[in-house]
Amino acid sequence: MEYKTTIGLEIHAELRTNTKMFCNTKNDPEEKRPNVNICPVCMGYPGTLPVINKEAVKHVLKVGKALGSRLADFTEFDRKNYFYPDIPKGYQITQYKYPLVSGGELAGVKITRVHLEEDTARSSHENANYSLVDFNRAGVPLMELVTEPVIHSAEEAVNFARELQLLLRYLGVSFANMEKGEMRVEANISVSKTDTFGTKCEVKNLNSFKTVEKAIAYEVARHIELLENGEKVIQETRGWNEQKQETFSQRSKENAHDYRYFPDPDLPKLQLSEMPEFLNQDLPELPSEKRARFDKDYGVKEEDREMYIVDTKLGDFFEEVLKIAGDNKLSILTSNYITSDLAGLQKGNPDIDPFKNISAENFAELIKMASGSELSSRGAKDTLAIMFKEGGEPRKIAEEKGLIQKNDEGELIAMVQKIISENEKPVAEYRAGKEASIMFLVGQGMKVSKGSANPQVLKKLFENELTK
Ligand code: ADP
Ligand code: MG
Q1: Nearest ligand for residue 202 CA
Q2: How far apart, in whole angstroms, are the C-alpha atoms of residue 65 and residue 11?
Q3: Which atom of ligand 1 lies nearest, measured to the CA of 198?
Q4: What is the CA(114)–ligand 2 centre distance, in A?
Q5: Residue 205 CB contacts under 8 Å (≥ 6 apart), including other chains
Q6: Residue 178 Cα to ligand 2 middle (Å)
Q7: Contact, 386 vs 427, CB < 8 A?
Q8: Is residue 200 in contact with ligand 1, taking CB distance under 6 Å?
């Protein structure tokens, strides 16, 4: 029997609130100056008292609602006691027995719980002689989501984490940037050949989706090798070494009783059933709902749809263009111009903000011109390139640059006759039955007209002239 991988994730996300979890100090993840957003409460001075941030409680309940979880009726906060320089009180306020949210599901993964706690300070050990601690982050509202051990591959784990990031952003409860530490993933990993789970290791401090994937792959291989050599996996907490691209042992796993959890006597218990406005919050459209709506209304390919789901600004633009164009049948054409042509221009010119130069109105006009016979696809691409760099209305640009497609047979016939008189060989070949030769003549017509002639109309004119 093969080894089966089992993974459970613990994901922390800093919540978007005006103030910290238990005081009215600013919660500003962008603050670069150390130790400016601090006060006696979040610095853990004796004699201070915490006050629960309602906004943070609401955020976690909102997440619970979106996950289809059970929202707590009764909830309380607990003290998790340990000593470390980044934890000013000597304990972290968290939730132990009564999390705000239990159960639920996302991307096929069962959720165990989501609870609310406070973040620690940020330590830096860049200097060999001393460490620095920045307390701006101490006491920032932090949610922790724990999944059941039901994930079986690195890919599935990353997919879940991405889906959660998207959800948190849609709900507006967290910026959830992994690179900034606003979302932090810990992966618990074990392997087993039987139905009983193997011994797990926890890997911490994974600050990108890529490292989540690599750390899981590394751990799975390491566990299998240990077991194959007749050795045992030791349950422990491990870190990720980016230079060496490997995990390393940090400490043996502590047990819950090491933390001496107990309910925080300074905080009130919450009876949420008495706070209906907390439980009955309206949800915005969720990523899964948006996917379903896009499939139903637009039917664009999955890759394009995902671009719109992740990059909501782009998705909004796409929808706005179609609304102005007034015809959902143009969705695929519109999507092609956005996800391949516009995205291509953007890639080559990352400094240009296309939405500054191109309004949805002008883009819709371009799409309408391209969907009719006014612009060839070449002409539309050229027009778009100019709109991208300089702004402007597509019709004006196309007229100025002579890109409007010539469909009028009367306008083109003189050119067709001239080409016939100047290209005896292909003309003779065509007349002798070589059908393909007509494409050479059409090509000449496109060249002479600088791409502005409609190739279908040209072909028809050549056929007419040569079979006269
Ligand atoms: P602990 O008591 O060590 O904190 P928990 O039971 O609270 O362990 O689980 C913590 C995380 O580890 C959860 O995400 C859970 O799904 C996951 N997990 C538990 N057991 C295993 C296992 N054998 N293999 C992989 N993940 C596991
Ligand atoms: Mg646990």
Answers
A1: 1
A2: 18
A3: 23
A4: 12
A5: 184, 239, 240
A6: 22
A7: no
A8: yes
Residue 411 C-alpha to ligand 2 middle, in angstroms? 78
197 Cβ below 6 A of ligand 1 = yes
The string of DSSP codes covering 376-421 is -HHHHHHHHHHHHHH---HHHHHHHTT-S-B--HHHHHHHHHHHHH
Reading the block at residue 343, the tokens are 């995205």
Dig out the tokens for 284 from the structure: 């915005």
Residue type, 93: I
Ligand 1 atom showing the smallest separation from residue 256 Cα: 2
> Which residue's alpha carbon is at the smallest distance from atom 7 of ligand 1?
146
Radius of gyration of the chain (CA): 31
pLDDT in tens, the chain (468 residues): 799 999 999 999 999 999 999 999 999 999 999 999 999 999 999 999 999 999 999 999 999 999 999 999 999 999 999 999 999 999 999 999 999 999 999 999 999 999 999 999 999 998 999 999 999 999 999 999 999 999 999 999 999 999 999 999 999 999 999 999 999 999 999 999 999 999 999 999 899 999 999 999 999 999 999 999 999 999 999 999 999 999 999 988 777 678 999 999 999 999 998 988 999 999 999 999 999 999 999 999 999 999 999 999 999 999 999 999 999 999 999 999 999 999 999 999 988 888 889 999 999 999 999 998 788 888 899 999 999 999 999 999 988 888 887 777 777 888 989 999 999 999 999 988 888 899 999 999 888 887 788 888 889 899 988 887
Is residue 167 lining ligand 1, measured as CB closer than 6 Å?
no
Any ligand 1 atom below 6 A from CB of 8:
yes
Write out the two tokens for 443: 């090509």
Contacts by 462-465 with C-beta closer than 8 Å and gap 24+?
A: 462/416, 462/419, 462/420, 462/438, 463/438, 465/413, 465/416, 465/417, 465/420
Q: What pTM value is reported for the model?
A: 0.88
Which residue shows structure tokens 């500054």? 356
